[in-house]
Amino acid sequence: MSTPVSVNVAVIYYSSTGTVHALAEAIANSAEQAGAEVRLRRATELAPRAAIESNPAWAAHADATADIPEAVPDDMLWADAVIFGSPTRYGNVTSQLKQFIDMLGGLWQQGELADKVYSGFTASATAHGGQESTLLALYNTIHHFGGILVAPGYTDPAKFIDGNPYGTSHVGGPDTSIDDNARTAARVQAERVVRFTRAIKKGLAT
């Protein structure tokens, strides 16, 4: 029996009050269960402490996750697949995640971001709060990377329940915990990313 191809997955996200963090943990755990080596990394916070302290949920989450390593370009080099996460910000990704992506210009020029698998997840306070446009905006970046986009689509019966083919998502504010539908969607997406990354990596090696 041949040895399974190793897969490195970086889950890189920004979360202010914890919803996207919970999704990130669910995706990271599912990727590990699917046999991948996983790095869970948060984007560097840009907001001043005064702004963070003005929102108790934001301040509490910032303190609770201070020990999670911040994402650095080396995480992109290490990864065979990258799953980005961001809450919606007026239909786009947060400035914190965008700054991390903007720091990758050197790797992009060297071709180091190409031929990796990419996927994304998000959250919004309302059902039509920009989830689709946020993920589509993120995925535009993947085309510039020369990356391989692996979205969940409607490839599993569970996807007809959560209804988002672009990526795992959650609707609700900081007081609304992610539900079983979101956790199932996270598992489906993570398993699909690991499966296709393994197949692509094996194919590129032959």
Can you offer a commentary on this structure?
With 206 residues, the chain is an alpha/beta fold. It has a single domain (7-205), classed as 3-Layer(aba) Sandwich (Rossmann fold). It contains nine helices and six strands. The model has no long low-confidence stretch (mean pLDDT 95). Its EC number is 1.6.5.2. It is an enzyme of class 1 (oxidoreductase).
Q: What key attributes describe this structure?
A:
206 residues, alpha/beta, Rossmann fold, 9 helices, 6 strands, globular
Write the layout of secondary structure elements.
Elements: E1 8-13, H1 19-33, E2 37-42, H2 49-53, H3 56-64, H4 73-78, E3 81-87, H5 95-102, H6 105-109, E4 117-124, H7 131-145, E5 148-149, H8 159-162, E6 169-171, H9 180-205
Parallel strand pairs: 1-2, 1-3, 3-4, 4-5, 4-6
Helix pairs in contact: 1-9
Determine the N-to-C terminus distance.
18 Å
Can you tell me the CATH architecture?
3-Layer(aba) Sandwich
Please give the CATH class.
Alpha Beta
User: How much of the polypeptide forms β-strand, as a percent range?
Assistant: 15-25%
Characterize the largest beta sheet: strand count, sense, and whether it forms a barrel: 6 strands, parallel
Order of helices and strands: EHEHHHEHHEHEHEH
In the predicted model, the low-confidence regions spanning at least 5 consecutive residues are none
Helix content estimate:
40-55%
Kindly report the CATH topology.
Rossmann fold
Number of helices: 9
Give the class from helix and strand content and strand pairing.
Answer: alpha/beta
List the domain count as a whole number.
Answer: 1
Keywords: Oxidoreductase
Pfam family, one: FMN_red
Domain Flavodoxin-like: 9-190
Family: Belongs to the WrbA family.
